Amino acid sequence: MRRVLRALGVLLILTAAVSCTEPSGADDAKSGELLRHAEPPPYERILPAPAAVRPGGAGYRLVPGTVIRTGTGSEEVRQIGERLAEQLRGPSGLPLPVVDGGAGDGILLRLDESAAELAEEGYRLESTAAAVTLTARTPAGLFYAGQTLRQLVPASGAGEVPGGTVADRPRFAYRGAMIDIARHYFTVPQVKRYLDQLAQYKINKLHVHLTDDQGWRLAVDSWPRLAEYGGVGGVGGGPGGHWTKDDYRELVEYAAERYVEVVPEIDMPGHTNAALASYPELNCDGKAPDRYTGIKVGFSSLCVSKEVTYEFVEDVLRELAALTPGRYLHIGGDEAHATPAADYAAFMKRAQEAVAGQGKTVVAWHQLAAAEPAPGAVLQWWGHDKTPAAERDRVAAAAKAGHRLILSPADRAYLDMKYDKDTALGLAWAGHVPVRRSYAWDPGTHLAGVPESAVLGVEAPLWTETIATRADLELMAFPRVLGIAELGWSPAAKLDWAAYSQRLASHGPRLTAQDIGYFRAPDVPWP
Ligand code: ACM
Questions:
Q1: Nearest CA to ligand 1 atom 2
Q2: In this predicted model, what pLDDT tens digit does every residue of 467-479 receive, in sequence order?
């Protein structure tokens, strides 16, 4: 399908300017006209936009004696305080010791389990002359309060947290990003860096695409050649590599400390050339193909009629589940063009049973709607504005039958789509995706027949056919991933391109201070 789409892409690019519809927050009169940067007041700069802000009153001055107070009794709150102190020390240049006890001035972290209005991940932040008080019902909420505070502290030097109150909670439970470490291999330290960048914008899921035609990137003890042989190489024939189980555990732990859940993906039954190359018995003809370094899709399939295929699936998912404290296992299911439809349905049924057998919840790309999604299975929509009606209708029917959706529309949320015709990296089969287009849509109304209640959340995937380095990754992800973070968190009433683009522009210096090599997109009024 991608090949056809790639050809269509050229056409799309030509028509994108007129066919782009922006259901929410669109201000057509201004489209095409570049706003000048007008630095918003501090509480309007918070990204993602909070549910409610009330600026006013005297603010809290950060001084050399400022302490962070984490109350008594909770080691987890203490850890959140320590991490916040580390994050604030750099910009503020202050020592910011973390102390037990709740009374006194400073930055106060408070868990209040009775604050029902703050929900699972919400928080309140109050800045007065005496203190900045962060209150949440859960540790995750306190972590997010701290991330908001970071954005209220001047980008450099000590200074004042302006007076005011934030009362905030997310719109969606699933706010994700995906990194494909199969096409080009990325190390755990590289992925940790990306995760840190994302968590500060309240993204709480990191989907890792661990396997594809070009590489198998996670060690599996019962099938060791998957990583040892299938992990060598990648697109263009580079060295490749794979994560050991300890590498993976380290990432999961690092993510959990930042309230991010890792969602691992083993893509099946297509996108499996690396596995087929590693084990001849997984092929219907018993012959292993060569390893693959190109970027075509849709040519590989596990052998659906062989029982050994299901031993493989169960072994891999059992080992993966044992490493993964999160609730989801993603089993791919996209672009299985080399698997006949009946075989696809039979295979996905057994793969879903294997996930259920591990006590996990299935996530799959939305092609699963053409088979039989198991009860509770979550579908990830990656269609775009030219996806045929029949495919959309199947997804809407699945939503009606109770399946929740993660929305990753390729012409909005795919971070590997080129920004414009001059973007050196990336692909264009879903058209060009300038920053405005990636932001100006509403997940609650995006898909006909899919009500907001069926939307679990949003995710910005970064496929890496053309992305090989940290610099490549940052240039394509930033700033677009921040718009997806806002769509996942902020209430629909706050989604507005004019306000967002000013808010985003004010983050340029913050991204630079973190050495994030973002794209200075021409549709954003950077200072
Ligand atoms: C996909 O882009 N094949 C999910």
A1: 382
A2: 999 999 999 999 9
